[in-house]
Amino acid sequence: xxxxxxxxxxxxxxxxxxxxxxxxxxxxxxxxxxxxxxxxxxxxxxxxxxxxxxxxxxxxxxxxxxxxxxxxxxxxxxxxxxxxxxxxxxxxxxxxxxxxxxxxxxxxxxxxxxxxxxxxxxxxxxxxxxxxxxxxxxxxxxxxxxxxxxxxxxxxxxxxxxxxxxxxxxxxxxxxxxxxxxxxxxxxxxxxxxxxxxxxxxxxxxxxxxxxxxxxxxxxxxxxxxxxxxxxxxxxx
Length: 237
What we know:
The protein is an alpha/beta fold. Helices cover 27% and strands 21% of the residues. It has seven helices and twelve strands. It has helices at residues 5-10, 16-24, 61-70, 89-96, 114-117, 154-164, 194-209; strands at residues 3-4, 28-30, 33-34, 41-42, 48-50, 79-83, 101-106, 122-126, 144-147, 169-174, 214-219, 231-236. α3 (61-70) runs parallel beside α4. The longest helix has 16 residues, at 194-209.
């Protein structure tokens, strides 16, 4: 019986998304040959090898990691809220940098990578819409928030966060392609207008300055999955 390459590899790594990333990067060989097509069908006798594994469960991890390293963010013994956790890239970064607990919140279900799903430091909050967040969702104070959401304006969630929680610092991923409206995107869904992207970032800087005295930003070290430039904002007391 034939099996898709990405499905087969998902049993060897953290998730199907992670498997697809490894395949795309050329880190998977079939019978000694690098294969970059996730939908490749395997025969039962085919030999699959992951050439080089990644320390994080998804490529999204590197978006937060860039900020953690650039701004020397201290996550040791922190309680973290990861909004839009998905596979858990941001959660993984926080844990590997010493966080004692991470609330992994996502509107979806069954997305968290196996390793994180089994980690006692991770509190799964599946099927939760962050726009309706309540303080009593959490049994301890949140020290640090990280957020990576799509198909919605980040402010929609942040407005609610500031209503119900007091957080010392946060890293927010801003995706201008979801902030500007579809009329500004090309046929591939890419925002090419760099001035508009910068304007959106500056608007978020001003928004966060209402709540925090210090706000910095940087381009995300990796682009969005379809090639959009995203931005990482770091706000703190």
